[in-house]
Amino acid sequence: MNLARVSSNGQITVPVEVRRQLELVPGDKVLFAENADGDIVLTKAPTGALPRAQAAFAGVAASLGLTGDDDVQRLVDEVRYGAARS
Questions:
Q1: Residues in the chain, pLDDT under 50
Q2: In angstroms, how far is the first alpha carbon of the chain from the final one?
Q3: Among 10, 17, 52, 51, which residue's Cα sits nearest to residue 32?
Q4: What confidence score (pLDDT) does residue 83 get?
Q5: CATH number of the domain bearing residue 26
Q6: H or E stretch including 78?
Q7: How high is the pLDDT of residue 34?
Q8: Rounded CA gap, 28 and 5, in Å?
Q9: How far is CA 54 from the centre of its chain?
Q10: Do the Cβ atoms of 31 and 42 come closer than 8 Å?
């Protein structure tokens, strides 16, 4: 088990053991995702994954009438919590 302290700026230092296990190097991006149990999991973001996802969804926001972050968050909440209520 490894612990990290959150600074007053919201920053953390990833422990060296975790960096080694994830093969993280300076400049890498990490992804914080919630798993099925509600735990937040840290993983190394695959190189190029974000640009590929952005390209795949190009134009979708406009077609759904999403104009900002708040609209996107409302849609995410609707999908996430609406499905849980069914």
A1: none
A2: 37
A3: 10
A4: 61
A5: 2.10.260.10
A6: helix 69-85
A7: 86
A8: 20
A9: 14
A10: yes
